[in-house]
Amino acid sequence: MLEGREVLRKGIRWRMGDGKGIDIWKDPWLVNSVMDNDDANLVLAIPLSRQQIRDRLVWNHTKSGNYLTSLGYLSVRNMKRIGELGGSCEGDTSMGMRSDKIWQSIWGLKVPPRVRNFLWKWLHNVLPTKVNLRPRGVKIEDCCPLCNSAPETAEHVFLYCPVTARFWYMTHW
């Protein structure tokens, strides 16, 4: 969570509109990040537009300014690689370089974003299964409600549960 805040802090900039929402000497915006002080002062002397366009925060790593989850993930990896974030990029999984190919495959899938996010959550073991909810203080039995034969983990539900195995068989996967 804290890493996410740091990535956003480093990745967002103000896009100038009417200039009313920006503290040009304090807030991160394009002039501060790519120009020296003399050039920045020249740019700051340019009169603002008379149109009433509001200032807005934009993602600095896309032309459109829109945040993309896949680029946010890559930003985290790059920031870890160069030491701007704690930890290392190898710490995401125990697979090291092989994991890069897995994540590139997932983020490159031509499926809705929610499917990619689901796969990401599954591989990071953060789906709200009963086994994952118990350490978070949810008072429930961890037994699979479908088969009552094993603890409810993502692997069990999607790969090993006899009830879901019948479902997968019926869908001809």
UniProtKB/TrEMBL annotation:
InterPro entries: RVT-Znf. This is Reverse transcriptase zinc-binding domain-containing protein. It comes from Lithospermum erythrorhizon (Purple gromwell). It holds the Pfam family zf-RVT. It comes from the Eukaryota. Residues 99-168 form the Reverse transcriptase zinc-binding domain.
